[in-house]
Amino acid sequence: MKIPISWLKEYVDINMDIKTFMDAMTMSGSKTEGVERVGASLSGIITGRVKTIRAHNNADKLLVMSVDVGGGTDLQIVTAATNLKVGDIVPIATDGAILADGKEIKAGELRGELSQGMFCSVDELGSNRDSFPDAPEDGIYVFTCDTPIGINPVPLMFLQDDVVEFELTSNRPDCFSVLGLAREAAATFGVSLKFPSVGGVVGMRNPRRHEVPTPSAPSFGADGVARLLPDQQTEFANMVAPKSTDHIKIRVDNQEKCSRYCARVITNVKIAPSPLWLRRRLALAGLRPINNIVDVTNYVLHLFGHPMHAFNICNVRGGEIIVRNAKPGEVLTTLDGVERILDEADLLIADNIGGLAVAGVMGGENSMITDDVTTVLLESACFDAVSVRRTSKKLGLRTDSSAKFEKGLDPNNAITAINFAAHLIEEIGAGTALHDVVDCYPYPTCESEITFVTSNINNLLGLSISDDEIGELLSRLEIKTTISKGKGLAIIPTFRPDITTETDLAEEVARLYGYDKVPATLAGSSNIGKKTEYQEKYAQLKGLCAALGFNEALTMSFESPGVFDKLLLSPTSNLRCAAVIKNPLGEEFSVMRTTTAAAMLSSLATNYNRRNSCAALYEIARIYLPKETPMTELPAELNVLTFASYGDGDFYAVKGKAEYLLKNIGINLLDVKFTANHTGDAPHELSLPFLHPGRKAIITVNEKFVGYVGEVHPTVAETYEIGTQAYITTLYLDSLLPYTGDVTVTALPRFPAMRRDIALLCDETVTAGDLLSAIRKNGGILLEDAKFFDVYRGTGVEPGKKSMAFSLFFRHPDKTLVESEVSEVVSNILSIIKASLICKSSLLSLA
């Protein structure tokens, strides 16, 4: 938010350099982002009156003018300006002057004629025609005839100021205004706030009750005739004068979304440009001047932080303002000329016929202020923050008003704002404000109370501040306190809804006392922070993936529905049942992903298209699977580990990496199986059409689904423009981690191992994993490891059969094994396998 310092100084005395001011405001909680020194470079500019004009002897398009700059001094200036005449008073950049853009003016000859300066346009002085609508579009600015000559016009034109930009937090809606920041500055520097009065009457800012004034009784003379005292005469005149209630009625149908609605009628309106000081003040604050009525509402918005709106009362049909919910499909054309389709959740300002404005967002085109308007209705209301934000987001229409209402405003500020606006309109001669205000405020917001203990505040801050000092610091913020024997009661103004607890009071004390005065201490606590068990496992998984040569990837949780077709998912696949985003950034980010395959394949495709010979990526992320009632329940969020690669080995290499990872997170490989099919406990169907039908496997632990591994289907790889074999492994961590345990580390063996290779003849339906599992389960303590190394089909093996070869490694921890001990274990393994899997066996070698 931009605030001109000159505006701020009207309400608080801050006589210091700008850096000191900004540093102090930042330390007290109102962070300053920067300062713009508007017009700081302007120098050497004076006013002068044109005395004579003659043609240039050597140039057809140039004129030579003599200008009186006061003090008996005349300057000769050569110019091409055609809008000047004798007697005009103009701004002049003299020899050595600096313009707004930093350009220096030097005296010199132009075509043989001496030119001792330059006439200035408003653009060259750092302004524009929005602030000076009487300035010519392409010419020199001319002052009014009563402007003194020989003076510096820069202050007269309000061209120099320091504009400070504040970075404010949304929990402090009171600070989004000039007065709010003036209040903060007054508290920071310990000075008084000069709150603006409205015709000598300050609006009720923090009422605890609302009283209706009653007229005083007249006095009677000796002759028995009633006579009115001077104050009573004014009071009586107000009673019989035209009132706003004669022109308008207010009805609020939805008091939850509109807690207060104030209206005041302005008659004899004369639409014209605002005074120069008002236009320049708005321009410095970043607002474009429009006309006097609109400028007043914008001025009040910036001064009080309370939005206002002005209606052409002639277009309020039926003479009644109705605050109601819009009807489904009701259409209103807003001031920007766009037709807005509303629903019953939107709050509408309407008359007896239809809508006039979207409450808290933007007015309607049908009641806009035009140049011929003569009577205006001013609105100052307080609308529900959530309702305004919802409507603003839905319509894609964010305005200065909606930005203020979204933060939550003080309804007690509405009456002060509308009275000040009416007073200002009369002050600048833009109209006449009728006497009364139509105010619909059925449930007034009153001050809140907080009890506190001063020792608690000191203990929380690590300070020793006296009770009196705590009370004094809080009083700077208009928080009234009574403290007795260390216990206090604080009355919180209605413009501070962020203060609700004793801790909030401590924060207010700390920032005004000075954060730099709070001693640095170590936090005392017996609690020692550490990672959760799952966080430890995630860190371990990341380390293992890196050890396997994978690089971490980060992908979006949002996807396009089009990826389901690219993954060859069937129309009935439950992976297509994705949670839909209500307000997506676009079609490509409109659903929550149900699988990480698409995102990882896109990342692989990017690497392949960049001509990387190989790529190996992993990501720990979430997928989102809708529940049975997706309209009422949030989707299930499953944590998955996905690693994808190409150019880095075949299916068995990828499968081996999955086994390595499982083994190193403490899962017994005896419990792990890689199967072609699995039913029962998978979170979704396991047809997995995006994987090669003959090169994929379901991973289970203790017969429970934990993931899958496979080669990407050639059609899918071609769709993603990956011109080589690619592989994906996905592990469902929520299902997997309960099976993990501690990894035991053993000393290096002291005794040699013995190896036996065996070949097992079995049916085609028997898998290597089944046989390895049987071998490991029946190998006893002597079996150290078992590996599958070959499969044979061909001569000597009958059809429907295959021969699979395994290496078995035996070792005793305390002695050297003898052949008989190993043979006994091998025989036991073979006999059990023959009985359970119906295999024929042979011993291939001894080692």
Describe the structure in your own words.
Helix 6 crosses helix 7, helix 11 crosses helix 13 and helix 20 packs across helix 21. The protein has 847 residues and is of the alpha+beta class. Helix content is 25%, strand content 27%. The chain starts with a strand and ends with a strand. The strands form 11 sheets. Strands 28-31-32-36-35-34-33 form a 7-stranded mixed beta sheet, with helices on both faces. Strands 5-4-3-6-9 form a 5-stranded antiparallel beta sheet, with no helix packed on it. A 5-stranded mixed beta sheet has the order 13-16-19-20-21. The longest helix is centred in the last third of the chain and has 19 residues. The chain is elongated, with a radius of gyration of 41 Å. Strand 20 and strand 21 form a beta hairpin.
Keywords:
847 residues, alpha+beta, 5-stranded antiparallel β-sheet, 21 helices, 25% helix, elongated, disordered C terminus
Radius of gyration: 41 Å
- Can you give the mean pLDDT? 88
Cα separation of the termini: 83 Å
Let me know the largest β-sheet: 7 strands, mixed
Shape: elongated
Condensed summary:
The chain has 847 residues and is α+β, with helices and mostly antiparallel strands. Helix content is 25%, strand content 27%. β19 (347-350) and β20 (355-358) form a beta hairpin.
Strand and helix map with partners:
Blueprint: E1 2-4, H1 5-8, H2 18-27, E2 31-38, E3 43-55, E4 63-68, E5 74-79, E6 89-98, E7 108-110, E8 113-115, E9 117-119, H3 153-156, E10 161-167, H4 178-189, E11 219-220, E12 226-227, H5 230-240, E13 249-252, E14 258-267, H6 276-284, H7 292-304, E15 309-312, E16 320-325, E17 331-333, E18 339-341, E19 347-350, E20 355-358, E21 362-363, E22 376-383, H8 385-395, H9 400-405, H10 413-427, E23 432-433, E24 438-440, E25 448-453, H11 454-461, H12 467-476, E26 480-484, E27 487-492, H13 502-513, H14 533-547, E28 551-552, E29 558-559, H15 563-566, E30 591-592, H16 597-609, E31 615-625, E32 636-646, H17 651-663, E33 672-675, E34 691-701, E35 704-712, H18 714-719, E36 726-732, H19 733-736, E37 754-763, H20 768-778, E38 783-792, E39 801-810, H21 819-837, E40 840-846
Helix pairs in contact: 6-7, 7-10, 11-13, 20-21
